[in-house]
Write a structure and sequence with these properties.
This protein has 118 residues and is an alpha+beta fold. It is built from three helices and four strands; from the N terminus they run βαββααβ.
Length: 118
């Protein structure tokens, strides 16, 4: 069995989840551009349901996102196919934690790579 060496790197990433939306036929590229302009960082949509959006945001601190959640929600509502409601909120804003390269967990035979960081 051949073993390959690989490195998983996540740099300055915050995971954001917005709930209380009505989503139908959303243009993810347009939404990523709107969010990136608002937050002055890169955004990537990673999950969409009929009522929520989850995204990775790079180069922006948690506090900066939480400071004006209504502004972010209004920007999201500008994207085609998204409507906000009275209960729309930032459900999660969580910075991915840093890990010292000298303390990278050893590989395991089962489970997802991400599970080693929990």
């Amino acid at each position: 069995m051949e073993q390959t060496n690989s490195i998983l790197v996540q740099v300055d990433k915050t995971v954001v989840r917005v709930t209380g939306l009505k989503i139908k036929g959303m243009n993810t590229r347009q939404l990523e551009e709107l969010i990136s302009d608002k937050l002055k960082g890169n955004a990537r949509i990673i999950g969409v349901t009929g009522a929520s959006i989850e995204m990775d945001v790079y180069g922006v601190e948690e506090a900066d996102i939480l400071r004006d959640p209504q502004g972010l929600i209004k920007v999201i509502a500008l994207a085609d196919g998204i409507t906000t409601s009275d209960v729309t909120q930032l459900d999660q804003v969580k910075k991915i934690r840093s890990v010292d390269i000298n303390h990278v967990p050893a590989p395991t035979e089962k489970g997802c790579i991400g599970e080693r960081w929990l």
